[in-house]
């Protein structure tokens, strides 16, 4: 079994990994770490919960384990993330992995928090900064950040940052960093706009794409149709009663509904709390901490919690509302089943939302198993009628990637091989939305491959996913 020490990491780091109980590197770590250590730029995509954070942090910390001869006090490593909670989590991970490197100084620069503390951190030498683009830009405008020592730039959840409209900020930030830097880009997807950004930011990057299991892997998925909102609430109630969950995340479409549902669950006696982007940051932090400590059992959240958040004790995800974009489905359900654990994801859909479900299934390239709860079956017919069809034909999608993940420990071992996921070189009509909403036009050259089935994404309605809602 491959060991962390064989990846070329310094002992000060492998000792810390022993301490946290990481015995063997995950597949994405085994591939990314040696490549990053030799200085290559990387473009990486891999399944949720598969250990991407350490894939960039460990080589970054390996750099920091050696002194720099460059003068100045600016950061040597910069990590950009789309959300504040994710930035904070990554800073914590870095501190854990660098437990033996007492000299290391980190700063987390995120919005919604006072400048004072952040400014003070920047007035001293800092080795690693984790930031959301907006707040980092604020500090840059004040002239507080000197990037002349910067050795490595990491973009985590790069596709999400683009979706959130951070492109100009990212470009400005990158322009302020030295050309000589190493760049690592992690993203759910590497085509479309992310591909373009990657070409701008990286030099001869190595592309690392780790197979995703076709079946959903260690996350068991269910789909349930509901007549209306009231019906959904009864289903949620029944799910929470019967599922034997430890901790759950319930995703809803709007900020208001996170509050309403969290209130209802609290009234029913659950330790529930909501999380959304309009809450004061101190409250957001407290809520997530309470979830991590087990004081909150049910988090009702918008997609602000869909990316990257790692609370390994979450056993269940419920999509109370369908995600707006098909790829968000994958990120939402990925809040459970982390690090090789099992998880359950239950998606509720209105009987009128059949076509939205189909879009998600097309993205996943598999169908979701429909289930019912006795006595709570939908009474309305699922509206399967023909959707508006004006799009082009199907774009196949291509190659299967052979070897799957594999934590090496038994629980993850079933992930071992053959779980290919058809790369999306073919039908990227789904990105049409980001390119002006025309996903239906001639994308998706067919690349053949075992799953090139002509389905194509998002093109049945000629629009691609997402923006129709
Ligand atoms: N080598 C390892 N051995 C055991 N556990 C690990 C290992 N690497 C990472 N983990 C654990 O796996 C969990 C998921 O890691 P991480 O958050 O980095 O996943 P990710 O791939 O970034 O997921 P997402 O796509 O959701 O952001 C964390 O709890 C982390 O501590
Ligand atoms: Mg992550």
UniProtKB/TrEMBL annotation:
Gly residues: bias regions: 390-408
Domain of life where this protein originates: Bacteria
One example GO MF annotation: RNA helicase activity
GO cellular component: cytosol
Stored SMART domains: DEXDc, HELICc
Domain DEAD-box RNA helicase Q per the UniProt entry, residue ranges: 2-30
Region (Disordered): 375-469
Motif extent (Q motif): 2-30
Domain spans labelled Helicase C-terminal: 231-380
Classification via InterPro entries: DEAD/DEAH_box_helicase_dom, DEAD/DEAH_RhlB, DEAD_box_RNA_helicase, Helicase_ATP-bd, Helicase_C-like, P-loop_NTPase, RNA-helicase_DEAD-box_CS, RNA_helicase_DEAD_Q_motif
Chain ranges of the Helicase ATP-binding domain: 33-208
Keywords, sorted A to Z: ATP-binding, Helicase, Hydrolase, Nucleotide-binding
A Pfam family the protein falls into: Helicase_C
Biased composition (Basic and acidic residues): 422-436, 458-469
Family: Belongs to the DEAD box helicase family.
Protein name: RNA helicase
Lineage, highest ranks first: Bacteria, Pseudomonadati, Pseudomonadota, Betaproteobacteria, Neisseriales
């Amino acid at each position: 079994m491959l060991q962390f020490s064989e990846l070329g990491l310094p002992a000060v780091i492998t000792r810390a990994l022993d301490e946290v109980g990481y015995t063997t590197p995950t597949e994405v770590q085994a591939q990314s770490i040696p490549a990053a250590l030799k200085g290559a730029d990387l473009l990486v995509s891999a399944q949720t919960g598969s250990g991407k954070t350490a894939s960039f942090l460990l080589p970054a910390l390996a750099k920091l384990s050696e002194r720099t001869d460059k003068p100045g006090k600016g950061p040597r490593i910069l990590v950009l993330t789309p959300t504040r909670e994710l930035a904070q989590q990554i800073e914590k991970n870095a501190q854990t992995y660098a437990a033996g490197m007492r000299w290391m100084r980190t700063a987390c620069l995120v919005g919604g928090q006072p400048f004072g503390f952040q400014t003070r951190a920047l007035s001293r030498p800092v080795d690693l900064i984790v930031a959301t683009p907006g707040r980092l830009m604020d500090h840059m405008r004040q002239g507080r950040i000197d990037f002349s020592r910067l050795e490595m730039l990491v973009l985590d959840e790069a596709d999400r940052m683009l979706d959130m409209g951070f492109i100009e900020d990212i470009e400005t930030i990158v322009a302020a960093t030295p050309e000589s830097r190493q760049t690592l880009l992690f993203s759910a997807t590497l085509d479309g706009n992310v591909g373009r950004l990657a070409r701008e930011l990286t030099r001869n990057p190595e592309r690392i794409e780790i197979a995703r299991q076709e079946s959903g892997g260690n996350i068991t998925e269910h789909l349930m149709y509901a007549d209306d909102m009231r019906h959904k609430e009864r289903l949620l109630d029944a799910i929470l009663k019967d599922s034997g969950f430890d901790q759950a995340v319930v995703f809803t479409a709007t900020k208001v509904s996170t509050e309403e549902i969290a209130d209802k669950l609290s009234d029913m006696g659950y330790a529930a709390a909501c999380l959304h982007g309009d809450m004061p940051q101190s409250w957001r932090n407290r809520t997530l901490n309470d979830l991590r400590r087990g004081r909150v059992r049910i988090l009702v959240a918008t997609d602000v919690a869909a990316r990257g958040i790692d609370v390994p004790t979450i056993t269940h995800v419920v999509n109370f509302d369908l995600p707006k974009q098909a790829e968000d489905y994958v990120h939402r359900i990925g809040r459970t089943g982390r690090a090789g654990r099992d998880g359950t994801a239950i998606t509720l859909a209105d009987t009128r939302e059949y076509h939205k479900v189909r879009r998600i299934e097309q993205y996943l390239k598999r169908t979701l198993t429909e289930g019912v709860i006795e006595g709570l079956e939908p009474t309305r017919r699922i509206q399967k009628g023909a959707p508006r069809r004006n799009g082009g034909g199907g774009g196949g999608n291509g190659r299967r990637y052979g070897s799957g993940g594999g934590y090496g420990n038994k629980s993850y071992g079933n992930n071992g091989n053959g779980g290919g996921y058809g790369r999306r070189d073919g039908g990227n009509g789904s990105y049409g939305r980001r390119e002006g909403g025309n996903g239906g036009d001639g994308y998706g050259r067919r690349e053949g491959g075992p799953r090139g089935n002509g389905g194509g994404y998002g093109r049945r309605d000629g629009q691609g996913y997402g923006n129709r809602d």
